[in-house]
TrEMBL record:
Main location: membrane
Highest classification ranks of the organism: Eukaryota, Metazoa, Chordata, Craniata, Vertebrata
Organism: Agelaius phoeniceus
Positions of the UniProt region annotated as Disordered: 643-754
Short name of any one Pfam family annotated for the protein: I-set
One GO CC annotation: membrane
Localization: Membrane
Domain Fibronectin type-III: 392-486, 487-583
Protein's recorded name: Immunoglobulin superfamily DCC subclass member 3
PANTHER family in UniProt: IMMUNOGLOBULIN SUPERFAMILY DCC SUBCLASS MEMBER 3, PROTEIN SIDEKICK
Designated gene of the protein: Igdcc3
Length: 754
């Protein structure tokens, strides 16, 4: 590595200048670095040969004896000059210096006569173009205007403002423009101050508002604003974006002109001048834009580096400015051309050189340029090369094994092989940039490598380097070979039954299929050997409907992808439409509108049914309560009216008669031989016709022979073992006498005894 003092670098670079016609011009250039150093000059990219008019001084500066804007042969000394310095390590180019001739045009705006009432505002303007910018001064009655008078304001762009006019301000005015090229006078204009100060009210009005300006940093901007009105309006300034204008470098000239000194990029914006009537919200506004440009300057300079052969060198150059600068790279003073191993990234801010060799050793320059100026920075690349490194590997061959595999083989270098510790195989798709390259390391005793996981039908480039502990050899020759083509993979297939005669085959596009031109679809009845198809489908198709099928059989559907290398493996699915037909018969399609109406009707019916059900439950509870109470009262009357005739013991019940769930023995434990319920009394209390008794209780008379099985029901069941549970009262008898205690009871002695 070389120290900063040994680097070839500019100490002084030529700068922009304005030259005077027929006067000498000197452009300075001073360089440091390792000698010997050769300095040359260029104008507009063309080498300058020493002549009597322009020649180089001993210190490297360029001397132009008589600068001329236009020479007799039509040439001009105006243009862009740069200085080139070269030594053993490379060549360096300075920034471009723009040289222009000093000029001054005629006035294109002259002051005009004006008649203004006393107390008003007068404004005179004259404009002229020149290089450098002319300085404009004003004369009144052939004498310089007294700038100490606060009512007189001189603006840099050739404007004279006079406020609060008085009679003594009347006179003849003209302006004088001066620069290094010339001095010129404008035409004269007369100012007449008439009448006395008026007291008539006038709305505020802006006579002249700010104009759009484009300036460079560190310059001064003057935004003009003249307002009139009665009473005299108040002039104020603001930014349209609402940001504060600030106070540093800000000054008000006259009654309302805004001057900003030492401009920065942050001063750019739209400025609004407002004229307000005092004490009111009545106002008038005018606006103008200010654009501040900044010449290019570096935020990060490229750094000189040293790298071994075969490695990568990266230079970074970051510049800023307004507008944003454009970055250009030079190699030994020439525009750098990109290639497979030289790449520019990040808007040219990053220069990458891959697989460097001795030919890449040079001085690399970064030029940043915009409309406000240019600058340059340089760095040197030193390529390290050790003596005794191996020569490049020999006889590199690549053979295709399959669609994803290539076999690479080589022979060891011819020279300096003892120190080899291994080989590195560099692999890249032929169509990819160099930075997409990747490597595989191989032991020193191996002279072949199987490269796998490659893409089918793709070209790859390979080269080999031999490595030692002191560095790598130069790269071998590059060999390019392509992998074999590959048929597509199996597609995923899904079958959906649409109706009794149609199915839909769908599949998903996938990168796993590889490169394919389209699909082939086949289908058949399973009991047949012949397929229908193929149906050829484009690669962007993902579904197909198979129609006019027979619902009574099973179908086989087959799908495969194909390309120029052939057909891929197929995916097979089986489908039956029989279940669909059966479901259609068992579950006919619904009428959705009808179902919706039925649902509404059903909902209403459920609500009504709930109300009816609740009402019925309430009535049933009430009925049972009152019916139970009436039954208890009735049983109490029966007890009081029962007689106590003695019945033979054989006809007595051992457990008593159960009436409404309560036995007689439970009711009267003190008298086991007390009152017994006589069946005649029951018949007298609950009379019923024989036909009704037979129908309701299934009990017939012992004398009736029409139902022989009734004898079993009444002849063998003693009353003592028989209990009666009455849930509902018997209907009242039609015989009116049945309800009277004196009426004779019907003859049912057999039934009573039974």
């Amino acid at each position: 590595d070389f120290g900063r003092s040994s680097e070839l670098a500019f100490v002084v670079e030529p700068s922009d200048d304005i030259a005077v016609q027929e006067q000498p011009l000197i452009l300075y250039c001073q360089v440091e670095g390792i000698q010997p150093i050769t300095i040359t000059w260029r104008k507009n990219g063309v080498m300058i040969v020493d002549n009597e008019n322009a020649f180089m001084l001993a210190n490297g500066s360029l001397y132009v004896s008589r600068f001329q804007r236009v020479r007799g042969d039509g040439s001009s000394d105006e243009g862009e000059y740069d200085c080139m310095a070269q030594n053993h390590y490379g060549l360096l180019v300075s920034r471009k210096a723009k040289i222009q001739a000093a000029t001054m045009s005629d006035f294109h705006i002259h002051p005009q006569n004006a008649v203004v009432e006393e107390g008003g505002v007068a404004r005179f303007q004259c404009q002229i173009h020149g290089l450098p910018e002319p300085v404009i001064l004003w004369h009144k009655n052939s004498m310089p205007v007294n700038t100490d008078n606060e009512r007189y304001t001189l603006l840099p762009k050739g404007v004279l403002q006079i406020t609060g006019l008085r009679a003594e301000d009347s006179g003849i005015f003209h302006c004088v423009a001066t620069n290094i090229a010339n001095v010129k006078f404008s035409r004269e204009a007369r100012l007449t101050v008439s009448g006395s100060h008026s007291t008539v009210y006038k709305d505020p009005m802006i006579l002249v508002g700010p104009e759009n300006l484009t300036l460079t940093v560190h310059q001064t901007a003057v935004l003009e604003c003249i307002a009139t009105g009665n009473p005299r309006p108040i002039v104020s300034w603001s930014r349209l974006d609402g940001r504060p204008i600030g106070v540093e470098g800000i000054q008000v000239l006259g009654t309302g002109n805004l001057m900003i000194s030492d401009l920065t990029v942050q001063h750019s914006g739209i400025y609004v001048c407002a004229a307000n009537k005092p004490g009111t919200r009545v106002r008038r506004t005018a606006q103008g834009s200010l654009v501040v440009q900044a010449p290019a300057e570096f935020v990060q300079h490229p750094q000189s580096i040293s790298r071994p052969v075969g490695t990568t060198a990266i230079f970074t150059c970051v510049a800023q400015g307004e507008p944003p600068p454009q970055i250009t790279w030079l190699r030994n003073g020439q525009i750098l051309e990109t290639s497979d191993h030289i790449k520019l990234k990040n808007n040219n801010s990053t220069l990458s050189i891959y697989g460097i060799n001795q030919a890449d050793e040079a001085i690399y320059q970064c030029l940043a340029e915009n409309s406000a100026g240019s600058t340059q920075a340089s760095a040197r690349l030193t390529v390290l090369w050790a003596d005794g490194l191996p020569s490049p590997p020999q006889s590199v061959r690549a053979e295709t094994v399959s669609a994803t595999t290539i076999q690479v083989s080589w022979e060891k270098p011819l020279q300096n092989t003892k120190e080899i510790i291994g080989y590195v195989l560099h692999i890249r798709k032929a169509a990819d940039p160099v930075e997409m390259e990747y490597q595989e390391a191989v032991s020193k005793s191996t002279f072949q490598q199987l490269v796998t996981d490659l893409e089918p039908s793709t070209s790859y480039s390979f080269y080999i380097k031999a490595y030692t502990s002191r560095g790598a050899s130069k790269a071998s020759e590059v060999t390019v070979v392509s992998t074999l083509g590959e048929v597509p993979a199996m597609p995923s297939l899904f079958i959906k039954v649409i109706n009794s005669t149609t199915v839909q085959a769908t599949w998903e596009p996938s990168i796993k299929l590889g490169q394919h031109e389209g699909f082939k679809l086949y289908y058949r009845k399973v009991h047949l050997s012949q397929y229908t198809g193929p149906v050829l489908l484009a690669s962007n198709i993902t579904a197909y409907n198979i129609t006019h099928l027979d619902a009574s059989v099973v179908y086989e559907v087959k799908l495969l992808a194909y390309n120029q290398h052939g057909d891929g493996n197929s995916t097979v699915r089986f489908v039956s439409l029989r279940e669909t037909v059966e479901r259609t018969v068992l579950n006919p399609p619904c009428d959705c509108m009808k179902d919706e109406q039925n649902n509404k009707t059903s909902t209403t019916g459920i609500i009504i049914g709930i109300h009816i059900g609740v009402t019925c439950i309430i009535f049933c509870i009430l009925f049972l309560m009152f019916g139970y109470r009436g039954r208890l009262l009735m049983c109490k009357n029966v007890q009081e009216q029962l007689s106590t005739p003695q019945i033979p013991r054989s006809q007595r019940s051992a457990t008593g008669l159960v009436l409404n769930g309560a036995t007689r023995r439970d009711r009267d434990d003190r008298d086991l031989n007390g009152k017994q319920l006589d069946m005649n009394e029951l018949e007298r209390l609950f009379p019923a016709s024989p036909s009704q008794e037979q129908q309701e209780k299934g009990i017939t008379s012992a004398h009736s022979l029409s139902a022989p099985h009734d004898e079993t029901q009444i002849s063998t069941l003693p009353l003592d073992e028989f209990s009666i549970i009455e849930e509902q009262p018997d209907p009242l008898p039609k015989n009116p006498h049945a309800s009277s205690p004196a009426a004779p009871a019907p003859n049912h002695s057999s039934a009573n005894e039974g």
